[in-house]
Amino acid sequence: MSSFEQDFLSSRQAPVVAPAGDLIIDPTTSTPHVSYTLHNSTLVIRGTSTRATIRPFYRRIFHHVLGGLKQANKLRVSLIYDEINHDSVFLLMEFFNRLEEESKNGADIALDWFSKDETHPIYFTGREVFTVLELSYPVRMLCLAS
């Protein structure tokens, strides 16, 4: 098993703790802007996600958000990517699956995946992801050009 796989498996088994509150992360050239608001249970990720070592970035976010989900039992996610790499997609898919588990346990989950239009690579990425995953919570694919 690779160190990447070991890291991933250990991160899935990490205990979820209650977050301190809201989370704001400013964007860089290779990481997106992140805004999580605990009081209204919303997560917005917007921008570019191409950093080669993206796992620690998303681990922090998802750990924080899942802690808030344990408190609020509700989450609205909006993803608005300009560009995204394979590792980021893989980590998002795992997060979506974790949200599916929470949804089956009664959490109110909804996800919006935005793209510029139906010809943009982000649109096709989202379509492929949601074709592969069997999610019971609402997922909308929306185009910003509409």
From TrEMBL:
<dbReference type="Pfam" id="PF09345">
    <property type="entry name" value="SiaC"/>
</dbReference>
<feature type="domain" description="SiaC family regulatory phosphoprotein">
    <location>
        <begin position="25"/>
        <end position="126"/>
    </location>
</feature>
<dbReference type="InterPro" id="IPR018530">
    <property type="entry name" value="SiaC"/>
</dbReference>
<protein>
    <submittedName>
        <fullName>Uncharacterized protein DUF1987</fullName>
    </submittedName>
</protein>
